[in-house]
Amino acid sequence: MSNEIDLVSSLIKERKYKKAVEEAKKVIADPSLVKDFMPLYAEILRKAKRFKELVECYKMWDENKISFSDWDFRHFANALRKNEKYEEALNICNIVKKRSPNFKPILSEYYWTLFYKDIKGRNISDVSENKILDFANEVKTKFKNVSNREFTPYDIVLLYISEFYHYKGNYQNCYNWLSELDGKKLNKIGKFKKGDETIVFVPQRAKYYLYMSNSLLNLGKNEEAKLLIIEALYTYPFWNKLSEMLLKIAEKEFGCVVKCMMEVH
Q: How many domains in the chain?
């Protein structure tokens, strides 16, 4: 069986996660190896983004009395959230928050879960302003001064409340919240792999460009809007929905901007 374990380890190093999962299942079929091999199996499933199987894997840890580190619990909560088991995820987060109150990754996971549970899954027109405002202020307080905010919900929550105010036509509040973000650091690519499926979505940076440029125009900040639209069109030069909307704004407000842009390209 050591050959199979060596093969799995080799496949992980080569990032061949799908094949690694197949080989790992052969290993855990041997009951005598389950306890020692389970942490590596969980790592493979996590890297392969097989979150449903990962939840089952962690439940097997419990059955086999395998101890959980804070990071193990964080990954378990994350897998539960990805499977929309929000209450279970929050329960795991609360266990770690109680035993390791200074463990920052679980705090991020806790707020990610609350966001998806109480806000993200709803139609934006049905979200209470007080609810999203209180939540955004809390997230801002918790994570604004974190050195690396990439894995915190800071950007997505502030972008969401900006979208909320843009939808309501409150361009001043939209502008104020967007000003807390650095647009150039937001996610530029709108797709990711989930198992064998490619999920496509509107990138954070594209939303930022659209909401900020429109808010600037409505607030009479035309020069700032013009520069931002030019930056946006350079970033997303293809004729997708974002480009079309920005071009319409540019044509209406600035006339020659579009012609100049197309000549440059």
A: 2
**Domain end position, chosen among 89, 106, 123:** 106
Q: Say if 258 falls within a structural domain.
A: no
Q: Is the per-residue pLDDT at 195 higher than 70?
A: no
Residue 245, pLDDT score: 64
Q: Could you tell me if residue 43 is inside a domain?
A: yes
Whole-angstrom distance, CA of residue 70 vs CA of residue 181: 30
Q: What is the mean pLDDT of residues 15-33?
A: 78
**Region 106-116 average pLDDT:** 96
Among candidates 158, 206, 157, which has minimal Cα distance to 181? 158
Write out the two tokens for 198: 């490619």
Residue 15 is part of which domain span? 1-67
Q: What is the mean pLDDT of residues 139-165?
A: 92
